[in-house]
Amino acid sequence: MRLSAELIGNALSYINPLGERELLLRGHQITVIENMGTISKDVECIDFVDNRITVLGNFPKLPRVCTLLIGKNRLQQIQPTIAEQLPSLMNLMATDNKIKELADLDPLGKLQKLTSVHLMGNPVTSNEHYRLWIIWRCKNLHYLDCQRVTQAERTKAVESFGTEEEPTELAMQIMSKRSTTIDTSNGTDKSNSAGLTKLTGEEREKIKELLKNAKTLDEVARLQQMIESGKISI
């Protein structure tokens, strides 16, 4: 089902137990987030649980949204601009989705107010570096999968992955491995990696070489944006 302005306008809106104004959009088989510019400006929580969304993003700037419930979907990717779209996001519940690679979660690191993340039921949680990686990327995180983040974990994360300016070899390896396509075998969603198909063979090889020689996380992120846009500018 399409997330139309009409569907949003007819959706239930109420004050939830946390005192937030919540917009209820669960269980509509929504495949793509769109038309969110039509929601009420006082909405603080959006409930997308039990839909078919594959990409987290495509929001207008919603400065009041602090909680996002998007469990039981088909999430595989998060747009790099999510922090610009939801600058006040504090709580993300994205359990039971299809996120596979640690680097696919990196956009969460730009959410400066993010304190609580729940990702149980995603393939990525089986990665041996999962918990420390999220703690390293999300500097202000207090809870991950219902467990409090400890100072000992923060220290170990830095030991494992270094700093933003001087990441370890392990950190660079993780950053260079991310999903580039979306599995739509059980849905009708389109991939947001269309940019990859726009690149010529020569450009693809150039990107691979640049990723191999990247020295900082910023360089890797910049190259990823080039892949997504399909435009190479060196």
Helix content: 25-40%
Q: For the CA atoms, what is the radius of gyration? A: 18 Å
DSSP helical segment count: 8
- The rough form would be described as globular
Structural class designation = alpha/beta
Walk me through the structure.
It is a single chain. The chain is of the alpha/beta class and 234 residues long. Helices cover 29% and strands 12% of the residues. The chain has helices spanning 5-10, 82-85, 130-137, 151-161, 169-175, 194-198, 201-213, 217-229; strands spanning 13-15, 21-24, 45-47, 55-56, 67-69, 77-78, 91-93, 116-118, 143-144, 147-148. The strands form 2 sheets. It has an 8-stranded mixed sheet, with helices on one face. Strands 4-6 form a two-stranded parallel sheet. A hairpin with a 2-residue loop joins strand 9 and strand 10 (147-148). The longest helix has 13 residues, at 201-213. The radius of gyration is 18 Å and the shape is globular. Residues 186-197 have low confidence and may be disordered. It is found in: Nucleus. Residues 179-195 have a biased composition (Polar residues).
Summarize the structure.
This is U2 small nuclear ribonucleoprotein A'. With 234 residues, this protein is of the alpha/beta class. The protein is built from 8 helices and 10 strands.
Descriptive keywords:
8 helices; 8-stranded mixed beta sheet; single chain; two-stranded parallel ribbon; 10 strands; 234 residues; alpha/beta
Topology:
Elements (H helix, E strand, L loop, with lengths): L4 H6 L2 E3 L5 E4 L20 E3 L7 E2 L10 E3 L7 E2 L3 H4 L5 E3 L22 E3 L11 H8 L5 E2 L2 E2 L2 H11 L7 H7 L18 H5 L2 H13 L3 H13 L5
Parallel strand pairs: 2-3, 3-5, 4-6, 5-7, 7-8, 8-9
Antiparallel strand pairs: 1-2, 9-10
Keywords: Leucine-rich repeat, Nucleus, Repeat
Organism: Phyllosticta citribraziliensis
Main location: nucleus
